[in-house]
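Lab notebook page, bench 4
Experiment: in silico fold of construct C2
Operator: M.H.
Input chain length: 196 residues
Purpose: comparison with the prior construct
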Amino acid sequence: MFFGFSFNQLMPAFVDSLGADEIGFGALMSAVGLGSAVGTVLVSSIQQYRHLGFTMLAGLLFGAVALVGFGIAVFYGTTRFAFEAAVVFAFLVGVFGSVYLITSMTVLQIQVPDVLRGRVMGIHIISFYLMPLGGLFMGVIASAYDDSLAVLVGAFVVLGITVVAMISQHDIRRIDGRNLSESGPNSDELTESAKA
């Protein structure tokens, strides 16, 4: 999230590169928001899905791929259909980003035992609010080189981390949404063991 999905911090620069105006800016931002809404509706039907862990990682993977497409569209700037392609990819980033965020929070809230849930969710929220720092990271690259390169670097970092996680983290991949409520440690047992 830090490296990739903070791309909207640089949206005004992307609008300039695409040769768009205020309406274009609104269209790009609305595409991300509409995509998030669609992703929320889609993911509501798979909360108890067998392959919930894989779906979470797939959302992150395809979101990064959509970011690559967005970066390529920005790179081509004012060429024909570049803006339209950027709007489509911004929509897809919203869809898959929403799928990842909702499924990851679902897994965290249900997998983590009751006595630790507040602390874990606190760390999760802190990491979420640190996302604007990703905009600073991307802004440095955009200032030194190119705004499309900033998006592509962030997207490929997310892609690399996601692929490594999908290959190496078997436990995450195998999280089953049908029995999540039974998979986390019992909070009473954890409290008793801590007292002992």
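Observations: Residues 183-196 have pLDDT under 50 and may be disordered. Residues 7-195 form a domain with the Growth Hormone; Chain: A; fold (CATH 1.20.1250.20).
Next step: discuss at group meeting.
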